[in-house]
Amino acid sequence: MKPVKVEERRATAFDGTDLAYHVVGEGPPILLANGLGGSWRAFKHQISYFGDRHRFISWDYRGLYRSGPPVDRGALRIEDQVRDAITILDAEGVESAVVFGWSMGVQLSLELFRVAQGRLQAMVLMNGVAGRPYESVLGIPAMQHIVPPILRGARTMPSLVEAVTRRMVSWPETVSWAKRLGLASKTLDDDLFRELAGSFEDLDMEIYLHTLELLGDHDAWDVLEDVDIPTLIVAGDRDAMTPRRASEAMVRRIPGAELMVVPGGTHYVAVEYPELVNLRVEKFFRERGVVGQSGEPR
Predict the structure, then answer these.
(1) Is 157 a domain residue?
(2) What is the CA radius of gyration of the chain?
């Protein structure tokens, strides 16, 4: 993987929230809608592969990583995050971009299409669902009624959650146990995963948990039949959080959507099988007329 040198910039959101965003690469823009548990670093392999042809733009969700918290600490809905995405596009003078969404970023991408569909050229949606994600966890719909109360309870003791999180991410065997338990593939990029896990140490856990809780209320399934831009959906056949059948249901509803299922992939296919994912995305770009740096379809 080639070195990635990212420039941090700042913008002010609709409600005055101070947003950190990051830019790297040259060419037509790709907006990165990250998972809640990661920053632009989760897309390092994609940035390294496509960075000579595309400009990647990412931002830290409000109250997390390098972005400041909103004055209203309840302003953490997907709809608020989408308004931040538009702020970032405007700050960079981007009229239209491809969006890569991972996990929570899948819901965010679809909501962005709902409110600003003219700003999106194509979507690559990885390891996510269109909405109500807790109905899909472990393939048990009843989890929709179990997960939110657990998150609300955890929010009442953020110091304890932060302490446990720090202990877990600093434990040398965390990655090994994730693989043994089937939460990650044996091909996972260990160093990158440790980098992502280490960034959890400084998170505001109350904001993180509240964002995670509100994520469960969002639903964009009604948007899918209106999607009229090229869409590639990437799934792992061992993803317990967003199972393959949820991706298949999305593909059936989005006109002309394509599906890539990665055998052995979990919730982290972009860092487990990066070469496979990158080549499939490149094929999608070429066949669906997504332009590269030269302005010609690749």
Answers:
(1) no
(2) 18
Task: Give which of 227, 250, 232, 248 is closest to 287, Cα–Cα.
Answer: 232
Three-state SS at 123: strand
Q: Which tens digit of pLDDT belongs to each residue from 126-135? A: 999 998 888 8
For residues 13 and 87, the answer to whether their CB atoms sit within 8 Å is yes
> Is residue 34 a part of any domain in this protein?
yes
CATH value at residue 104: 3.40.50.1820
Q: Domain residues for 258?
A: 7-131+220-288
For residues 181-211, one letter each, b for 16 or more C-beta atoms within 10 angstroms of the residue's C-beta and e for the rest, the string is eebbbebbbeebbebbbebbeebbbbbbbbb
Residue that is written with structure tokens 């599906």 in the block: 259
What is residue 234's three-state secondary structure? Answer: strand
When divided into structural domains, the chain yields a total of 1
Alpha carbon separation from 59 to 23, 26, 181, 226, 267 (Å, rounded): 9, 17, 31, 26, 21
Reported as a single tens digit per residue, the pLDDT across 36-81 is 877 888 899 999 999 999 999 999 999 999 999 999 989 999 999 9
Is residue 250 exposed (0-12), middle (13-18) or buried (19+ Cβ within 10 Å)? buried
Tokens standing for 182? Answer: 């089937």
Per-residue buried b or exposed e for 129-153, using 16+ beta carbons within 10 Å of the residue's own CB: bbbbbbbbbeeeeebeeebbeebee
Residue 103 lies in a domain: yes
